[in-house]
Amino acid sequence: MTPDDRDPRWDTVLVDCRLATLADTGAAYGAIDDAALAWKDGVIRYAGPRAGLPGDADALAAQVESLEGAWITPGLVDCHTHLVFGGNRAHEFERRLEGASYEEIARAGGGIASTVRATRALDEDALLAASLPRAHALVRDGATTLEIKSGYGLDLDSELRMLAVARRIGERLGIGVCTTFLGAHALPPEYAGRQDDYVARVCEEMLPAVARSGLADAVDAFCEKIAFSPAQTRRVFEAARTLGLPVKLHADQLSDLDGAALSASFGGLSADHIEHTNAAGVAAMAAAGTVAVLLPGAFYALRDTKLPPIEALREHGVPMAVASDLNPGTSPLLSLRLAMNMACVVFRLTPEEALRGATVHAARALGLADRGRLLPGLRADFVVWDIERPADLAYWIGGSLARRVHAGGRLVATSH
Predict the structure, then answer these.
(1) Are the beta carbons of 265 and 288 closer than 8 angstroms?
(2) pLDDT tens digits, residue range 66-117?
């Protein structure tokens, strides 16, 4: 694509670089050696061989920069996080390692209930201050789009406050943020023994108010024996559908309740966790185009042993996303790249599957068609990495590999 007629120059062109475009070119990672990447007004204008530039680079762009052979990938997309919350549950982690059970901790006021108390106690500015460092850690490690859920307020004011903070995080860091209303996450203490009453409140009061606020892009629920039943989840999804909000689901994490199939039956963007999903659920996801979101951080932290049905997902062509599931209780994971490593080591994804899972398929899990690959016309979300090959992103366990992170063409993080 050539510069446009109104302003004939691109903003910037990067040369002497290597691109992992993740386009379906037949080459591993959609890789291009001796490449160039150009953007204007936050949109990629050229991504291809340097020799294919439509003229001399200096004449094409206001700024030309050589990257001396560095690799560039699309910006990472973390499509499942709970990063807005108050408090900390490190003490529960310690207690579990000393032998206390989850049930014992919950009876003592711990678990999600403790995070709900801490989150409700913070005003919007304090909640933003508590959450920003977690978001910034993900961005410094290469994330340019984050999904952020509510679900630790469990009353209307607190849930709206969480969603407002999520929006502010995107504005403050200059990144993409998709918000998800997760009112059906757990039963708030004031509704003990009245689960159906709480579901009614979610459907009849909270969801309509959230929809009016414009603060939520989607609706989620936790369908599990310790949370909400399939029938209750279906009621939440029907209310969301009436309000025109897409859905996604915490599905089949601890048991097989046909959650993946339930999400697919509503045209769900994704079914997340899915360790216990059965063959019919996989087939339903394939038919509906529902993305499987793999969350190895929670699998690791809970020392789970039931693997998601990876081979069945491959056989049915279900796109597999990878996300951090950053949350205070079961996945205090501040790196999507580390989640990619876990997905390879624990779930046996290939490094290319993991990278596509954290870009192409993660974007699809959020309903976003404008990012996840390095292609003309898409958002100029990309990362310049200090690596020798794309597989390094899943190979290295920890460390700082992102040299520069750009969202919409703007520099949002550096290694310095």
Answers:
(1) yes
(2) 999 999 999 999 999 999 999 999 999 999 899 988 778 877 888 888 999 9
CB atoms within 10 A of CB 310: 17
- Could you give the CA distance from residue 348 to residue 350 in angstroms, rounded to a whole number? 6
What is the rounded CA–CA span in Å between residue 29 and residue 19? 9
Phi, psi of 208 (to 5 degrees): -60, -40
Other C-beta atoms lying within 10 Å of the C-beta of residue 196: 13
Q: How far apart (Å, rounded) are the C-alpha atoms in residues 369 and 242?
A: 24
Structure tokens at 254: 């601890």
What distance in Å separates the CA atoms of residue 212 and residue 206, rounded to the nearest whole number?
Answer: 10
Nearest Cα residue to 250 out of 259, 258, 240, 261: 259
What is the 8-class DSSP label of residue 263?
Answer: H
410-414 and 402-407 beta bridge pairing: antiparallel
Give the predicted TM-score (pTM) of the model: 0.97
Q: 285 near 264, Cβ under 8 Å?
A: yes
How confident is the model at residue 96, as a pLDDT? 86
Q: Both ends of the chain: CA-CA distance in Å?
A: 33
Backbone angles phi, psi at 327, to 5 degrees: -155, 160
How many degrees, rounded to 5, is the angle at CA 284 between CA 204 and CA 184?
25
Which tens digit of pLDDT belongs to each residue from 377-400? 999 999 999 999 999 999 999 999
Confidence of residue 180 (pLDDT cuts 50, 70, 90): very high
Where does the pLDDT of residue 2 fall: very low under 50, low under 70, confident under 90, or very high at 90 and above? low
